[in-house]
């Protein structure tokens, strides 16, 4: 199967020649290489220079200065990234990294230690001015299952956001909003590591947990061409490791 994935989109003879010359590479290739070009990975095998403030490194940024008075909410711990929203913070802790794809896959290991914990993957384009804070869509992982929401054409669209605040949503807008979010039941064990993969292709998003497809959702906001920032939003507590991002388009 690895050779098939490795030869993705190559003509057969070229593929055979490449394989003949690169046998060792093929054997060592990541099994997930069929997801496209690996454009980012982080295994968090490092430590901070201090333990008072966020210092995730590797070009990650966090929201702790603005939402938690600079208290430490993001901690490199035992070779993984632990995130926990501080008491009295005014927003869920946000840990962000730039990337760029139209279609691609984001994968990581994650661990949730408490009932109610959620790890949200928030896909963002800060250059998009028709939405609040660049919000495109979410994929949420909890102990109960997976949820998706199209924010670009849903609650983060500025027109809709203002109308919701003012209480002036039209019946058409209310009906449309109901089609922007879905959830899928898939209970998982608390306090142990799980694997997630989120595939985005065109207007479709699909999530796998521990190798099993949990759910898919199609919505126009997912097709936004320039996804440029990943925010990991954690209202409670979550730990991640071995994050990888592949680009197909
Ligand atoms: Ca630490
Ligand atoms: Ca690690």
General description of the model:
The protein has 249 residues and is α+β, with helices and mostly antiparallel strands. The chain folds into two domains: 1-35, no CATH class; 39-247, Exo-inulinase, domain 1 (Jelly Rolls), CATH 2.60.120.560. The protein has helices at residues 2-6, 12-21, 23-28, 64-67, 158-166, 171-177, and strands spanning 37-42, 61-62, 74-77, 80-84, 93-101, 104-111, 118-124, 135-142, 145-150, 181-185, 194-201, 204-209, 212-218, 227-234, 237-247. The strands form two sheets. Strands 1, 3, 4, 6, 11, 12, 13 and 15 form an eight-stranded antiparallel beta sheet that branches. Strands 2-5-14-7-8-9-10 form a seven-stranded antiparallel beta sheet. A hairpin with a 2-residue loop joins strand 3 and strand 4. The longest helix is centred in the first third of the chain and has 10 residues, at 12-21. The chain is globular and about 50 Å long. Residues 1-10 and 23-29 have low confidence and may be disordered. Bound molecules: calcium ion (CA) (2 copies). Residues 47-48, 51, 75-77 line the site of one calcium ion. One calcium ion (CA) binds at residues 47-48, 51, 75-77.
């Amino acid at each position: 199967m690895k050779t098939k994935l490795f030869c993705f989109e190559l003509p057969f003879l070229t593929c055979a020649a490449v394989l003949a010359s690169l046998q060792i590479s093929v054997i060592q290739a990541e099994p997930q290489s069929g997801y496209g070009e690996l454009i980012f990975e982080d295994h968090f095998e490092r430590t901070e220079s201090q333990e008072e403030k966020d210092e995730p490194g590797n070009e990650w940024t966090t929201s702790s200065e603005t939402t938690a008075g600079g208290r430490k909410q993001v901690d490199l711990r035992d070779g993984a990234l632990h995130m926990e929203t501080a008491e009295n913070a005014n927003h869920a802790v946000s840990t962000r990294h730039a990337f760029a794809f139209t279609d691609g896959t984001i994968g990581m290991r994650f661990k949730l230690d408490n009932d109610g914990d959620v790890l949200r993957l928030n896909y963002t384009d800060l250059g998009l001015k028709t939405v609040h804070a660049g919000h495109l869509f979410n994929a949420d992982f909890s102990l109960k299952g997976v949820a998706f929401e199209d924010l670009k054409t849903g609650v983060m669209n500025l027109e809709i956001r203002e109308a919701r605040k003012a209480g002036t949503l039209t019946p058409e807008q209310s009906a449309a909003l109901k089609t922007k979010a879905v959830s899928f039941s898939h209970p998982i064990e608390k306090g142990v590591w799980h694997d997630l993969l989120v595939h985005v292709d065109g207007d479709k998003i699909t999530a796998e947990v521990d190798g099993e497809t949990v759910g898919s959702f199609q919505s126009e906001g997912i097709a936004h061409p320039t996804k440029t920032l990943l925010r990991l939003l954690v209202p409670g507590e979550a730990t991640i490791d071995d994050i990888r991002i592949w680009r197909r388009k």
